[in-house]
Design goal:
This protein is an alpha+beta fold. It is built from 10 helices and 20 strands. Helix 4 packs parallel to helix 7 and helix 8 packs across helix 9. Keywords: Hydrolase, Membrane, Protease, Serine protease, Transmembrane, Transmembrane helix.
Amino acid sequence: MEGATALNKRKKILKPFIAFAIVTLFLTFFPLPYYISAPGSAMELNEIVKVEGGNKERGSFSLTTVRIGKATFVQYAWAKMNNYYEIYPESYIIPEGESEDDYSHRQLHMMENSKEQATVVAYTKAKKDIKIDYNGVYVMSLVAGMPAEKKLKVGDRLFSIDGQKMKSAEEFTNYLSKKKKGDIVTLKLERDEKIIEVKIPIAVFPKEKTGDGQDKVGLGIILVTDRKVTVNPPVEINTDKIGGPSAGLMFALEIYNQLIDEDLTKGYKIAGTGTIGYDGKVGRIGGIAQKIVAADKAGIEIFFAPNEQGKKRVDPTGKPILTNYQEALQTAKEIHSQMKIIPVDTFDEAVLYLQKLQPKD
């Protein structure tokens, strides 16, 4: 009897601990329908970008990252209590009809495209050998609820729009930007080794407006240009599982710096962010406040931020939307950072700033 009594006592003591362990595991690991983004890190690009025979640097160029992941109860609570942590509904990060694998694939593809754009910009600026072959424009994804969803499939290769041959996604986008709601366009495409034509109306994107309060219209296609870029000397950019397009500007600066005789770093630790176009234009990115925090922690001295031509925009409530540069300045002030925040609209502007920069002692 005494043994049974002792066993019962142990069971009574263990029950609260087991319950506590179960609750703790639930709060720690059960995923919520939210994503959390947080400051990431600054990664020196001379370890990632290798131009064959490339020149060395006294200082460094770095890309900056944002960490993002599915929220749990604990992580959600932590994000609520910490500055520069952002909470997003799942649908904001992963559109309806898209899986996490689809999202990851899209992010990695944007990174590959960003590296290609940066390579083209840098080699062109440095007047080095570069050859570009165009192999068509492909449908990478479709926007749910838009007209193209019923007419096109992922993987369709597009040849022309309204009888005009186009070799790049940019040409398609520029053409569509002149259209308005209700206009109908004719696309010629290849699918399953067959050539077909489809007619698709221009429509308003669901719940989306531009910065000036106007409805945004289009077909609902996300396109990618199938290019083959060949350069000499060769370059390798090893990004592993880093995704997204926001390192474009910094890739271009690192590649260019390895191609030329002058060292543009001049001994400084330089970071930045911004997409890069084939024309060298620098575009807006997300999470710049978090990237400023990451750069400051890494001891970065100069940070390039997209200026967006100083464009004034408002959200649907009429509240002004800060440009990347304005938000970067504000964040640097809030965290008492000594970094110099430099606004840029183009790759050439960033190069010119660095050319005029006095070398560090």
